[in-house]
Amino acid sequence: MRYSIRGPLRGPALVAAAVALATVAACSTGSGDGPPAASGTGTTATAPGTATTPPPSPTPTRTYPLSTAPRTIPAVGSHRAARGPGWKPGPDTGVVVAAKDEAALADEARLIAGELRVPYRGTAAARPGDVSLALGGQGSAESYTLAVQGGGVRITGPGQAGVFYGTRTLKQSVRSTGAIPEGVVEDAPAKPQRGLMVDIARKYFDAAWIEARVREMADLKLNQLGLHFSDDQGFRIASDSHPEVVSARHLSKAEVRRIVDLAASLHITVVPEIDSPGHLGAVIAAHPELQLVSATGRTPRGAVDISKPASARIVDELLREYTGLFPGAYWHLGGDEYVALMARNPEATYPQLARAATARYGASGRVQDLATGWLNDRAAVVRPTGKALRAWNDGFYPGGVAVAAQDLQVAYWTGKEIGARPPVAYLSAGRKVLNYNDEYLYYVLGQPNDFAYPTGRRIYEQWTPLVLRGTTPVPARYDPQILGGSFAVWCDLAGAQTQAQVADGIRMPLTATAQKLWDARRPALTWDRFKALAGQVR
């Protein structure tokens, strides 16, 4: 408020003006951050013989613009804007949990407290400025509500995973802007399975590198780590049942347990894969008697002779051993690129397989039926553990006597290989599918066979989980059958990049994949703004 004094004041008028200015000052002592100073209801005192001066208007309370959504990757699903200062860690901030939920949420609370550099105060009553965690509400186990109100933060969710993801949103917002805006976030993933798969068979990756990827995945709200640990070039996890197949450089079981435990604490499931009946070169190197041999004496790399009971026996022994090491809910059976089926006439090229097929399936049995039977038999070994089973799409063969078990989920990666059919062929048959589209999501070391390193921008701007093959999406009606997807690192030319180069190379493609698996809608940010945000929150 401005006062204009038009001329010199003397005597009573000067006194009156001084009193009036003092009254204005007394009514304006509240700071812009707090409520206005209270104004009286009586009259203002004046000097004798002067006119009554009306009381001044009180200083208004500071007003806030409507808040905007927190800056995070992946972006939150919805944000109910509000007016208020938001929240940032302060000297009196702590993290607390509801008493009934301490056993379930103490780990999540301690983690976010450490990341915010504030104390964890257990089940103490929440104070102004605190972060409180609790189980509750409706929705999926991965959904959550994050409310920033009254100077504090409250994160709730039906399951532990949802509350954990709420803490990731809080962490990223504070990291990017120093605070989290006023309002209420309601969030849940579009897809239940969101992953990174790493080929640790062709290239050895040490435990510390894998653990670093697990932590990176957790902040991106990814929930599956695939480990392809057996292939032609190596078998990378210690074995008690068949130590002879293990490569010199490998992970010990203690290291694997540490990885699995870390992943579980961050709500990530490790999904192992022993690929068969192809890609078993490391096993064949120790057991050459299992090698598939053609009628002309050719020995295709990595292919075991599936007509031999000994081939099934060793793979089943390995499966039984490792299902105990990996307690998660999923198992990948492989099943791709069995070389016998790449021959123009498999029955003539591998007569022993043809004989085994007719012996098992009758006169109409073919080599593809024997391969389907192999896949079903391996599934039968793992199924009693209760794990959900998946196999590569080119391990499913149409038109044969044998049919792949209906509970096998399709890991769809390509339309280039033998037996590969358009995705709709699997979806229309009622199968559930996971998206590993090699056009967008395959990071193949050395870029052989026309592969090019994927870019985050291309994934961010063009890909969605509906784009299973090439660049064309399947009809939206199949969306419920697409369970999610995974970015994949393949090490065909293992020496092409170091571990550090792989980590750097996949950083933005993995970030973009995480965004599109959490929310497949067109992103609100441009690629350049998204990339800049990634540099702030990660």
UniProtKB/TrEMBL annotation:
GO terms for biological process: carbohydrate metabolic process. The active site is at E337. Residues 1-22 form the signal peptide. Residues 27-64 are annotated as: Disordered. It comes from the Bacteria. Coiled coil: none annotated. CDD domains: GH20_DspB_LnbB-like. PROSITE patterns: PROKAR_LIPOPROTEIN. The keyword Kinase does not apply. One of its GO terms (molecular function) is beta-N-acetylhexosaminidase activity. Residues 27-52 have a biased composition (Low complexity). Keywords: Glycosidase, Hydrolase, Signal. The keyword Chaperone does not apply. Residues 70-188 form the Beta-hexosaminidase bacterial type N-terminal domain. InterPro entries: Beta_hexosaminidase_sua/sub, GH, GH20_Enzymes, Glyco_hydro_20_cat, Hex-like_dom2, HEX_bac_N. Residues 194-519 form the Glycoside hydrolase family 20 catalytic domain. PANTHER family: BETA-N-ACETYLHEXOSAMINIDASE, PUTATIVE (AFU_ORTHOLOGUE AFUA_2G00640)-RELATED. Belongs to the glycosyl hydrolase 20 family. This is Beta-N-acetylglucosaminidase.
